[in-house]
Automatic annotation (TrEMBL):
<dbReference type="InterPro" id="IPR027417">
    <property type="entry name" value="P-loop_NTPase"/>
</dbReference>
<dbReference type="GO" id="GO:0005525">
    <property type="term" value="F:GTP binding"/>
</dbReference>
<feature type="compositionally biased region" description="Polar residues">
    <location>
        <begin position="139"/>
        <end position="159"/>
    </location>
</feature>
<dbReference type="Pfam" id="PF00071">
    <property type="entry name" value="Ras"/>
</dbReference>
<feature type="region of interest" description="Disordered">
    <location>
        <begin position="237"/>
        <end position="266"/>
    </location>
</feature>
<keyword id="KW-0547">Nucleotide-binding</keyword>
<dbReference type="InterPro" id="IPR005225">
    <property type="entry name" value="Small_GTP-bd"/>
</dbReference>
<feature type="compositionally biased region" description="Pro residues">
    <location>
        <begin position="245"/>
        <end position="255"/>
    </location>
</feature>
<dbReference type="GO" id="GO:0003924">
    <property type="term" value="F:GTPase activity"/>
</dbReference>
<feature type="region of interest" description="Disordered">
    <location>
        <begin position="127"/>
        <end position="164"/>
    </location>
</feature>
<dbReference type="InterPro" id="IPR001806">
    <property type="entry name" value="Small_GTPase"/>
</dbReference>
<protein>
    <submittedName>
        <fullName>Uncharacterized protein</fullName>
    </submittedName>
</protein>
Amino acid sequence: MAKVDVKVVLLGQQSVGKTCLVDRYINSTFETAPKNTIGVAFAAKKVACKNGRVMSLGIWDTAGAERFEALSRMYYNGAKAAVLAFDPCNARSFEKLKFWVAEVRETQPDCRLYIAITKCDQLEETPSVAEQDAGELDSYNSSNGDAMQRQQSSTSLASATGRREVSDEDIAAYAKQLSGPRFGTPRILATSAKLGTGVRRLFQAIADDMAGLPPPAPSSPVARQTSPVRLGEFKFSDTYLNTPRTPPGVSPPGTPHARQKRPSCC
């Protein structure tokens, strides 16, 4: 497995398009009939960040089917970012996010959350609550010659299959509920794996945010203390080990007892 700087987990109900997001981001491809993920899938990609750092993202695509929920919990450990994916034309997938959030926060309370609105090509217009990046589609046109044609036909597609069930107000209110003291309100990003819009922006946002974080604090109070040990030395300190003083006339523990002098005969 490739060494990664940031572990990212994709969470969401089955068929919301998590695997399609990863395929589009990693391979610049889109499967019209993708197979459901069984267990978990892994991918990694290096990302150049705004501050000049290069971050390696490890992306874990978890299965959304209920029978795999217990298995998915195994992959939360060490996650620094979680993408909460839902289909705006499926209210149940939006409600299911509450389950995933509870799961992540139970095991990884410091994991940063991102809300990904998927399948936005089925909507008549991009959700106004999401971050906007109008120029992103152009980066995919060179490898996807019919991208603009699909974008122009998205309105007719929306009239057939895009009955929206989750409003901008619902999304904004839920994001506000998830606000925390460290990261604030989760970022909301609209995506379409089919058109390629918003996908790169999603993972770029994660990489930029993670690259800007300060180094993690030591995991234990002992590690934050000034250590008395230097290179080439090894000694104890009262900071780490406290022992009672040895009373006068008593040999220290672990040393041979001195032979006592017998009193002379009278």
